[in-house]
Amino acid sequence: MLRKLFVCSIFLAGFTALDAQKFEFSVNGSYLRLNEKELGSIDLEDPEDTDTTLKGEYGYGARITLNTRGYYGHELSYSQSRAKMRTVIRSVVSGSTVSEIHEDRVMVQQLSYNFLIYFMPAGERWRPFVTGGLMGVQYGAPNFSAWPGGGSRTYGGNYGAGIKFQLFPHMLFRLDFRDNFAGRPYDLKFQDVATSGGISRYMEGSAGFSITF
Fold first, then answer.
1. Residue 62 contacts residue 78 (beta carbons within 8 Å)
2. Residues 57-97: pLDDT tens digits?
3. Distant-in-sequence, close-in-space partners of 163: CB < 8 Å, separation ≥ 6
4. 67 in the Ramachandran plot: left (φ > 0), alpha (ψ -120 to 50) or beta?
5. Neighbours of 179 (CB within 10 A)
6. Within 13 Å and on the Cβ side, how many CA atoms surround 81?
7. Among 180, 181, 176, which residue's Cα sits nearest to residue 198?
């Protein structure tokens, strides 16, 4: 009997907790303010730290949010953005070194988990919040014939803030700003080996719509 009551209590507690949750599904457009000017070089003989650069562009993404009845939330996010890569490729022609500039666009994919803290309780029309979380970043490989390898995966974190505004029942408009930091991608050659690696830091802004249920 006690065992049955215990199982029933656990079931009811779980049902009550689930009932207290509120889900959101969001889609958004984003801009990646990535301006990495020192990614190293693919030239193994005479590398310069500024040979390869990466500049962020526009993208899009989606978020799934699980909110508590009070002031907290858990969120999984995925975004995909384009970035312009520029690199210098050197070759020797008739005894002289010739430098060629190559450009291509690569895909930058991010997957993150964030914890949200709201300034207003659930049910309010305006809900500003702060957030922090962990993330993984996948950089695509450019279409350069002399490129030494494939893409690059790094890990890091982010923090930021945002606001959600209820437009209609079950529909929100949201703005997000994140400061992201992760390992420097591609592991290219540097003049000084000690300067390789390091942190890549960039801002990300997004705007989109959420459906709540």
1. yes
2. 999 999 999 999 889 999 999 999 999 999 998 877 776 77
3. 126, 127, 128, 129, 174, 175
4. beta
5. 15
6. 27
7. 181
Domains of the chain and CATH, by start: 22-212 (2.40.160.20)
Instruction: Give Cα 30 to chain centroid, integer Å.
Output: 10
Rounded to whole angstroms, how far apart are CA atoms 156 and 212? 29
pTM: 0.85
Instruction: Give the other-Cβ count within 10 Å of 131's Cβ.
Output: 21
Residue 82's identity, in one-letter code, is: R
